[in-house]
């Protein structure tokens, strides 16, 4: 009896531990990330990576489509360029820094900005860049990137999917996510 | 069964012991070996990947010039054995590498730093020697577990700036050529044979160590203390010292050719393209130096002043913005003004609150570049200028 009780407790402990560490969580409805200072409506039936560092969601797997929402301080070093964002930059200037950072990534080739225009997210003027590139395997990827500065913080929301078939399939869902985004606190 | 096992073991032993010394292609004993032929075939496949990647800088005049200099260095008899071909890659980091079949890739980054044809000949002589002295074949034979070594390299090379965009397309042979390079002795051999070749072709040997001084300056500028691809090689300072020792022993009665003007003319466009690549990577000092050099070669081309203006605008300090305005004005005042310079000028005025001047500059930009991808921003800013 004692032995089976111990086994049961161990099984419950493992189950709780595994649930607590689940890397992906099913989405649907409003979601607030205090760490990233954003509130956003996430689509039903997608999966969100369980991390506070950014909001990453996908429906069929990261390689097939992903939406990434990130927020970082302007002093933060960008990964692929030595350029920095600065408080007070115009959306066009911020887009130049972000696009140069992406296009300087060693992992991609044939980077091309197809369209770069101004837009509004969370009531703020932002940039909306549409671009394509080839990934490490040579697959053509299409991406839309919205970005804006709020004081000394930069917010980026981007959607990435293979150009063929997948990009068009979820672009409307992405635009709904963008339209729902609000800042939890403004600076 | 025993016999088969013995034969198999012997085969493995022999394969493992394939000689790691080979005569250069100029030697009467030279014969192309079977594994060498396979390495050449593999090289051609890898080169196709690089050439299709969009990273090749296409400038027919420059390519013809580089190949012309290469032909001055090696006689036709060597070309019959190794058909050298020089290709330029859009990459702001100073590097060059040779495939065993004679294809030599030269980055725009190193072309931008080289001062003259004599330094170019030093570089080409060095890279050609890797091919003529079959360094890669020897290198591949000495690698016991190529797949494991390559896999570990692939995971490391993404962090090496000198390889840059090539990470995606370099294969096994290209990785060895561009990243790990060769042994210390092979590099020294390539340095010494290379300087002999440029000297024989009539170039000024005093220029040879200057090439390595440029590389050293770049490493210092990027604060790279021990770059991976120089890790197992003679350090740059040692190489400079080797050249200096070599030069001391030379008969200095005759001065060789330097050919600075022709080099600058032929490399001008690549220098400007490289300045834009440096700018994208946020390497402002390199971008500024490249753009200044371009302006000194082609003072009538507005694009050079535009890139200089962008360097200062993107640096963004108060003094920088004054400099940016100066260069944008210059680029817009020339007979054939640069449209982007009007945009740069407009953005500066717009942020200063000088809406009248900003509006004027933005209108000129749109008139000159009606299909610009960022037109919608400019139209927004123009509305705010009214």
Would you summarize the structure shown here?
The complex is a heterodimer of chains A (187) and B (386). Chain A is 25% helix and 40% strand.
What does this structure look like?
- The complex is a heterodimer of chains A (187) and B (386).
- Chain A is α+β, with helices and mostly antiparallel strands.
- Chain A has a single domain (2-183), classed as Protein Transport Mog1p, Chain A (3-Layer(aba) Sandwich).
- Helix content of chain A is 25%, strand content 40%.
- Chain A is built from three helices and eleven strands; from the N terminus they run αββββββαββββαβ.
- Chain A has helices at residues 2-20, 91-103, 166-180; strands at residues 24-26, 29-33, 38-42, 47-49, 55-58, 66-73, 109-121, 124-134, 140-150, 153-162, 182-183.
- In chain A, the strands form two sheets. Chain A has an eight-stranded antiparallel β-sheet with strand order 1-4-5-6-10-9-8-7, with helices on both faces.
- Chain B is mainly alpha-helical.
- Chain B contains 19 helices and three strands.
- Chain B has helices at residues 2-16, 34-51, 60-73, 76-81, 108-113, 117-132, 135-142, 146-157, 172-180, 184-200, 208-221, 236-248, 260-280, 284-297, 302-315, 318-333, 339-352, 355-368, 375-385; strands at 85-89, 96-98, 103-107.
- In chain B, strands 1-3-2 form a three-stranded mixed β-sheet.
- In chain B, a hairpin with a 4-residue loop joins strand 2 (96-98) and strand 3 (103-107).
- The longest helix of chain B is centred in the C-terminal third of the chain and has 21 residues, at 260-280.
- The termini of chain B are far apart.
- Residues 1-17, 156-160 and 226-232 of chain B have low confidence and may be disordered.
- At the A-B interface, helix 2 and strand 7 of A face helix 17 and helix 19 of B.
């Amino acid at each position: 009896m004692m032995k089976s009780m111990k086994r049961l407790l161990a099984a419950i402990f493992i189950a709780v531990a595994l649930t607590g560490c689940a890397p992906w969580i099913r989405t649907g409805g409003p979601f607030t990330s205090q760490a990233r200072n954003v509130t956003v409506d996430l689509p039903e039936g997608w999966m969100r990576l369980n991390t506070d560092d950014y909001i990453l969601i996908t429906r069929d797997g990261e390689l097939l489509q992903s939406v990434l929402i990130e927020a970082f301080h302007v002093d933060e070093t960008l990964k692929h360029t030595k350029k920095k964002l600065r408080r007070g930059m115009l959306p066009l200037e911020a887009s130049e820094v972000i696009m140069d950072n992406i296009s300087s990534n060693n992992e991609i080739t044939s980077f091309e900005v197809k369209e770069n225009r101004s837009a509004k997210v969370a009531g703020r003027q932002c940039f909306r860049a549409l671009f394509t590139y080839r990934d490490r395997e040579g697959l053509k990827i299409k991406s839309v990137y919205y970005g804006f500065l709020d004081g000394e913080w930069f917010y980026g929301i981007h959607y990435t999917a293979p150009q063929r078939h997948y990009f068009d399939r979820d672009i409307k869902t992405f635009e709904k996510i963008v339209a729902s985004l609000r800042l939890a606190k403004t600076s | 069964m025993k016999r088969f096992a013995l034969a198999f073991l012997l085969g493995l032993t022999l394969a493992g012991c394939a000689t790691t010394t080979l005569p250069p292609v100029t030697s009467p004993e030279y014969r192309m070996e079977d594994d060498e032929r396979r390495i050449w075939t593999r090289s051609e496949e890898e080169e196709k990947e690089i050439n299709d990647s969009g990273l090749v800088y296409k400038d027919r005049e420059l390519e013809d010039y580089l190949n012309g200099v290469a032909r001055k260095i090696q006689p036709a008899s060597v070309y019959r054995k190794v058909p050298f071909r020089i290709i330029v890659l859009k990459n702001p980091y100073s590097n060059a590498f040779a495939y065993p079949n004679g294809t030599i890739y030269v980055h725009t980054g190193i072309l931008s730093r080289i001062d003259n044809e004599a330094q170019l000949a030093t570089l080409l002589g060095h890279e050609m020697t890797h091919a003529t002295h079959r360094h890669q074949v020897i290198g591949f034979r000495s690698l016991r577990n190529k797949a494991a070594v390559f896999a570990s390299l692939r995971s490391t090379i993404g962090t090496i700036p000198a390889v840059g965009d090539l990470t995606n397309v370099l294969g096994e042979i290209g990785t060895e050529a561009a990243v790990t390079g060769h042994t210390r002795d092979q590099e020294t051999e390539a340095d010494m044979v290379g300087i002999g070749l440029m000297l024989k072709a009539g170039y000024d040997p005093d220029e040879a160590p200057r090439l390595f001084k440029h590389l050293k300056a770049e490493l210092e500028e990027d604060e790279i203390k021990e770059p991976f691809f120089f890790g197992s090689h003679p350090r740059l300072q040692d190489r400079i010292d080797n050249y200096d020792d070599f030069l001391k022993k030379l008969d200095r009665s005759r001065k060789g050719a330097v050919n600075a003007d022709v080099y600058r003319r032929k490399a001008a466009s690549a220098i400007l393209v490289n300045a834009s690549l440096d700018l994208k990577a946020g390497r402002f000092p390199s971008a500024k130096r490249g753009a200044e050099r371009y302006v000194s070669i082609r003072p009538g081309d507005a694009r050079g002043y535009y890139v200089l203006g962008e360097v200062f605008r993107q640096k963004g300090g108060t003094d920088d913005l004054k400099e940016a305005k100066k260069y944008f004005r210059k680029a817009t005042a020339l007979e054939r003004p640069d449209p982007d310079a009007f945009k740069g000028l407009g953005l500066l005025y717009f942020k200063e609150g000088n809406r009248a001047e900003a509006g004027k500059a933005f209108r000129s930009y749109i008139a000159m570049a009606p299909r610009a991808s960022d037109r919608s921003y400019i139209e927004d800013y123009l509305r705010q200028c009214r």
